Amino acid sequence: MTIGHWRLLGPLAVCLALALAGGCKSSRPGGATGTEIVVGEYESLTGTTATFGTSTHNGVELGIDEVNAAGGVKGKPIRLITEDDQSKPDVARTVVTKLVTQDKVTAVLGEVASTRSIAAAPVCEQYKVPMISPASTNPELTKKGEFIFRVCFTDDFQAAVVAHFAHDQGYRRAAIFKDIKNDYSVAFADNFAREFQRLGGTIVGEQTYQEGDTDFKAQLNSLKTENPDTVLVPGYYSEVGTIARQAREIGLKVPLLGGDGWDSPKLVPGAGRALEGCFFSNHYFSTELKDPDVQRFISAYTQKYGDKPDALAALGYDAARLLADAMKRAKSLDGPTLRDAIAATTDFPGVTGKITLNANRNARKAALILQIRGDSFHIYRVYTPEQVGQ
What's the rounded Cα separation, in Å, for the pair 96 and 108? Predict the structure, then answer.
């Protein structure tokens, strides 16, 4: 992995350098030199959701290491340039502009957070450089253009899974507590409400917060007065732990439900025992799965990084290997040709399930419902798209 020196200079310095260089010219970047193929990556290596970016980067790096160890692509090794977007959408757009216009990468991998992927995607679309998001689930992302892909499911599916699960558990009165500034959280909440009500449930209350807030008791007290039998919190781990603790402090004892934004080693330490027995949906990856390919990935990851991978690491690994597979199939690595090869991906054997990209450049995959017990997450149920009518 190479972390570009531009990252050390900060986003303002990058903007200044790009301006001095003439800004965003429309010349076609090219990331395949005579000796190597350059791929860009942007992740939240620091900032509010740093565990997302770190896990994903580790998976990407492992995937590329394996591709290079097996001979690379078209006889050339892949060189990865990784940029830290500091968990900020504006920085994400800046560093992706740098990857495309200055480093002239062949393709871009990233991001986890939908807000940041949506901010950067138009840059890749403008310059016809394929971008693959490992884990951004907001349905709007791939609508940004034909060069934008993802290897994960979307929130309309994930939210439907949680709605069906809530109904299957016997919950009929759900409340929602969402991050109003977060594209992922808003879309998740809207899709959950639509499906839960279609199934016969009632949304008894809805409150909002913003990333960085630390006192949630006023909103939680308001939700408590509506007497819900569950509360959906479709946010990121950075706030969910505190929300859970404060919910218990005011006497809101019902199970909390969430999505893949909860998947972080910092979730339980932030919540203490407040999330014990609660549930969240996640991508089809768990260290409890017995599939030989999954176990081989877990072993390789653990050997390299000294810790077990989470779902975001697995999706990063799948995104990197899927890109390399498409590069091998493509007749050339120019943007449109590589785009067509990625779009033609069918039954790619990922560790998060087989990946076939549909006409909207999204993957259609199963989801897990995980239960929090102690300090770990355990498989509780599996839902396929067919089970939720998709």
Answer: 8
